[in-house]
Amino acid sequence: GQQVMQIPQYQHVQEGEDFTTYCNSSTTLSNIQWYKQRPGGHPVFLIQLVKSGEVKKQKRLTFQFGEAKKNSSLHITATQTTDVGTYFCAGDTNAGKSTFGDGTTLTVKP
Amino acid sequence: DTGVSQNPRHKITKRGQNVTFRCDPISEHNRLYWYRQTLGQGPEFLTYFQNEAQLEKSRLLSDRFSAERPKGSFSTLEIQRTEQGDSAMYLCASSLGSGLHVGDTQYFGPGTRLTVL
């Protein structure tokens, strides 16, 4: 079945440093979504990418979808303590079912 | 509050007992999803509904699990004869359910944390 892998599993950064998490799918995706889950909270939708090679930005966050639509990345510039949490990617191959990666947990040292 | 709500928020039960969870999606959303999440893992797909129809069910879901969405609004997830391995956070999400699925943002509820003793 479809597998979605994320690396790294954990990332510890000093406030102000950049952060990147990578998502790789075993199969071609129709779209990919990114979510953020704060400790003790539930996943909150960040963005969806649909087109091959698509790049979207949200303030300090940059999301990319690979040309082959099998990988994606999330880059945060100049991390802040409010960025702490676990970032999940979720890939769709068929309408209705999303396969989530196991997330990258970001901690930020002030 | 117009978000996704789930009840109860916490459930502690003894092994072998049955439990039922409820999810109330955002009112205009056609699709409703159930996921299970354990510590350090991403949400694991269990099943989803388009209106009242259950369209897909994970092969990981044993016969002890059943979900319903009788009127296309709220949904229930029942686990029969609970086992300690069922302990997890059960998350519900809803989406508008556009036909092509593109732009079908899922909004998650706060989850029900199940502990099986």
Question: Could you characterize what this model shows?
Answer:
The complex is a heterodimer of chains A (about 110) and B (about 120). Chain A starts with a strand and ends with a strand. Chain A is globular and about 40 Å long. The model of chain A has no long low-confidence stretch (mean pLDDT about 95). In chain A, a hairpin with a 2-residue loop joins strand 6 and strand 7. Chain A contains no helices and eleven strands. In chain A, strands 2, 4, 5, 9, 10 and 11 form a six-stranded mixed beta sheet that branches. By secondary structure, chain A is mostly beta strands. Chain B contains no helices and eleven strands. By secondary structure, chain B is an all-beta fold. Chain B has strands spanning about 5, 10-15, 20-25, 30-35, 45-50, 55, 65-70, 75-80, 90-95, 105-110, 110-115. The chains are: A mainly beta (about 110), B mainly beta (about 120). The interface of A and B includes residues 35 and 95 of A.
Structural class of chain A: mainly beta
Based on CA inertia axes, which overall geometry of chain A fits? globular
Shape of chain B: globular
Q: Point out poorly predicted stretches of chain B.
A: none
Secondary-structure topology with pairs:
The complex is a heterodimer of chains A (110) and B (117).
Chain A: E1 4-7, E2 10-14, E3 19-25, E4 31-37, E5 44-49, E6 55-58, E7 61-65, E8 71-76, E9 85-94, E10 97-100, E11 104-109
Parallel strand pairs in A: 2-11
Antiparallel strand pairs in A: 1-3, 3-8, 4-5, 4-9, 6-7, 7-8, 9-10, 9-11
Chain B: E1 5-7, E2 10-13, E3 19-24, E4 31-37, E5 44-50, E6 53-57, E7 65-68, E8 75-79, E9 88-95, E10 107-108, E11 112-116
Parallel strand pairs in B: 2-11
Antiparallel strand pairs in B: 1-3, 3-8, 4-5, 4-9, 5-6, 7-8, 9-10, 9-11
